[in-house]
Design a protein that fits this description.
alpha+beta; 62% helix; 2 domains
Length: 315
């Protein structure tokens, strides 16, 4: 029991440390790459940056509202609205990531602001690099179960009253935030760079989150199916399923091999097929969410996870 509890504690510590690292990377990108270049982006971070620039030079805030503080206030308001309207409960990891990003944004904004990398004059480079670094950071947090709030909370609130896809809400919110930057920056180019930033950021997150889960599903039709199947199982240690088929036109029986493998193993399997039957017919398709032995563990339902948590708490 003691060993199990120790392992559980270490696992939780690891998750929160990795989330903190991800939040730090995300915050560094905004504070030290994106903001110095005068570039804008979407989400709560983008809105916080617009507010920071809009409040500069005021009597109350001569240096503007710090971006981290603005980020925290925006999410605090959204969380309060979500609790009052939807009644949703936010997990500890979501609150943790919001707080960590808020702190890192203000700390980096104070001590690591300015053109540290010497690329602020190149807006396109700053936009792309900032989006990639921010995307990598937030992906690390997502991977450990964290969330940066912002648009996610807006979607929860709107979706409670009317079913709207997350993608539409994301595009609408980002468009409004980036478009509003014109009132502060007075530049059309800033809006264009903003959309580039959002696009690269989204692509980076998708690639990182899906990259380690991308797999290939291969169908092979060959007279030498037995040799091909044996070679795949012996060299790659991948399971191969042999299915019986019948040609609709010829009426002749045939054998079909079904192989699911990691994406990087695809070329090896294609080489095995070519070496054993150059005339084989095959198709390759990209698949995601492959679960089972040799791939990802089958995800548990929320009900099962909740029961396990209650069971551990009762112990």
């Amino acid at each position: 029991m003691g060993k199990f509890n120790a392992n559980s504690i270490l696992k939780v510590i690891k998750e929160y440390v990795l989330m903190a690292v991800g939040c730090a990377g995300y915050s560094f990108a905004w504070s030290s790459i994106i903001s110095p270049a005068g570039v804008i982006g979407g989400g709560a971070s983008g809105l916080a940056l617009v507010i920071e620039h809009a409040t500069r030079g005021t009597a109350l805030l001569p240096d503007g509202l710090p971006m981290g503080t603005g980020f925290f206030i925006i999410n605090a308001i959204l969380i309060t609205l979500a609790v009052l309207t939807v009644g949703v409960k936010f997990g500890a990891k979501t609150i943790y990531c919001i707080v960590m990003i808020s702190v890192f944004l203000d700390v980096f904004g104070k001590f690591l602001s300015g053109d540290l990398l010497g690329i602020a004059d190149d807006k396109m480079l700053s936009t792309i690099l900032g989006a990639v670094v921010a995307g990598a950071g937030v992906s690390l947090s997502f991977h450990e179960g964290g969330s940066t709030g912002g648009t996610d909370i807006v979607w929860m609130i709107i979706n409670h009253f009317k079913k709207v896809s997350y993608g539409k809400i994301l595009m609408l919110v980002d468009f409004m935030i980036i478009a509003s930057s014109y009132l502060v920056y007075g530049s059309i180019s800033t809006i264009i760079y903003g959309f580039v930033m959002v696009t690269v950021f989204g692509y980076t997150v998708d690639m990182i989150m899906a990259g380690n889960k991308q797999s290939s599903q291969i169908f092979v039709f060959s007279k030498n199916y037995k040799e091909i199947a044996d070679k795949i199982t012996s060299s790659l240690h991948r399971g191969v399923t042999i299915l019986d088929g019948v040609g609709a036109y010829t009426g002749n029986p045939s054998k079909m091999l079904v192989v699911i493998c990691r994406k990087f193993e695809t070329e090896t399997i294609l080489k095995i097929v070519r070496d054993n039957d150059p005339n084989a017919f095959l198709s390759v398709g990209a698949v995601m969410g492959v679960y089972g032995e040799g791939f990802e563990a089958l995800p548990e339902s929320k009900q099962i996870t909740k029961k396990k948590q209650n069971k551990e708490e009762n112990k």
